[in-house]
Amino acid sequence: MTKKLVKGNIALCEGAITAGLKSYFGYPITPQNEIPSYFSRKMVELGRVFIQAESEIAAASMVLGAAATGTRAMTSSSSPGISLKQETISYMAGMQVPALIVNVQRGGPGLGNISSSQSDYFQAVKGGGHGDYKIIVIAPNSAQEMYETAYDAFDLAEKYRTPVMILADGIIGQMMEPIEFNRPEKKEFKEKEWILNGCKGREPRSIKSLLMKDGVLEKHNVKLQEKYKLISENEVKYELYMIEDAEIIITAYGISSRIVKSAVKLARKNGIKAGLLRPKTLWPFPSKIISSFAKPNIKFLSVELSYGQMVEDVKLAVNGKSNVEFLGKAGGGLVTEQEIIKKIQSKVYSIFL
Amino acid sequence: MKKILSKPESLKDAVLSYCSGCGHGIIHRLAAECIDELVVREKTIAVAPVGCAVFAYDYFNFDVTEAPHGRPPAVATGIKRTNPDKFVFTYQGDGDIAAIGMAETIHAANRGENITILFVNNANYGMTGGQMAPTTLIGQVTETTPFGRNPEREGYPIKLCELLSTLEGTTYLERVAIYNPQNIIKAKKAIKKAFQCQIDGKGFSLVEVISNCPVDWGMTPLDSIKWVEETFIKSFPLRTVKDKINSDI
Ligand SMILES: Cc1ncc(C[n+]2csc(CCOP(=O)(O)OP(=O)(O)O)c2C)c(N)n1
Ligand code: SF4
To answer: Is the Cβ pair A87, B68 closer than 8 Å?
Structure first.
């Protein structure tokens, strides 16, 4: 199969289209503008739905409506826009409406800037909106994975009737890489038993999250929690790199994991036994595998483009069995390989050398 | 014996949660009767609001979804664009449609979405206990305008139909009321016309129904009806605000 040089954002669009995306609703914000631009032409050419909404809130609500009818729908945005979409994400979690939300993160808080960041981790994996809920959060680290995760996201969302978020970052979205469009087009979809498509030949249905009768909301929440448990058991994905004999395990996702991979190679050349554990799903988090590596003689280092967010989940998984260090910056700066090596040597590795 | 009246098929046999004398029940019935008469029940997907009518999905006998406060026009847009063959309408109060959801309303109308909105104007927020709405009349006392709505402090009542009439995308806008049988008949005609507008693919239609909220107005049902007739509709005149259904032919 021949490879094509495309931006991560475009690869993601192609993955979603091949997966049978029927409608896209968006609102411009950098660094994800290629997504609405690409869809504005491509979806119309394919006879599918594209709307530039009046706001992120409206775009997300359009997704809710389209997805409630059982069709594949998505929206994309970047950090401040995702904050606005949180209202609908909470509703979709409560109403159990499956859809894809893409966050190509930029620097914050507030307007911040348009360079790459990983500072929306908390917002993505800890609920983000109101109420007790989780959404599946996938973190691709290449254009190829942007394509593949967008392709897989809808099946996953529909399997569990839940919103799924792809949490990318400015660099993954903007970076051009050769990718293989290696997935078959999905055309046939089984009709689900919960969708709203007119009550012909059946009882009317409603999709809602308002449950006022005594104990009903509690029951609904228990059901949601059971679903989240099932997702945690079945859908954790991660990548291990040079980890078998590693004495220092570096955790990183998205663009950071690419830098860490180079740093691991460099460290190995210098005789430092480093390895990479890359969560591909940020929720559910690969806690079990992290926990299985956690021992007194193994050190952990979380490298992120934030001031320390995923590191909290690493610490929870490690549960005191290993030292956990953190290296990160945000607001536009990238962590360099040299900084990682320096951190390993000064803070972590020296402790047990 | 000949049966001359029965519950519309589009209404479930449920006990409505509305206060005595509230207009929502009548408006539900009118919508249901129109849907029956137009034979679209089995392809209807309605959008319920946040407000007193939030339980519409428990009362209407067809598919209904919930929407976040003010977002029904956007939710309906998503439904209709992906399912142009379905019949899609939203049911919204003044707080829902003209306060938190004003942007969604204006832009769905401006895009000329082929949907219908039933807009229940009762000049206050019913569900949360009678606070000021965008439609609250000048001088009207509400929970949050205890001295009466003062335009210098709270601005003026928004006339949504007139506002939307300036948009190229709107096809049919009508303001009706339900305070007496004659007006109920007129209201039903308007709702049916708005629904037909969508069925014929003619674009965005909205019917504003002036309704009463005796409980939050602090009135008896009878007094509330009198207030609608003597005060409310003076500020919100009943009329066809825009009708492009036939004029384009
Ligand atoms: C985001 C959000 N803000 C506020 C509320 C609280 N709330 C519920 S109903 C309502 C007002 C509804 O008034 P209206 O739309 O006029 O409908 P009515 O109850 O009068 O029929 C408000 C503010 C909410 N549910 N969600
Ligand atoms: S509060 Fe007002 S609008 Fe709400 S049900 Fe009661 S009378 Fe009707």
So the answer is: yes
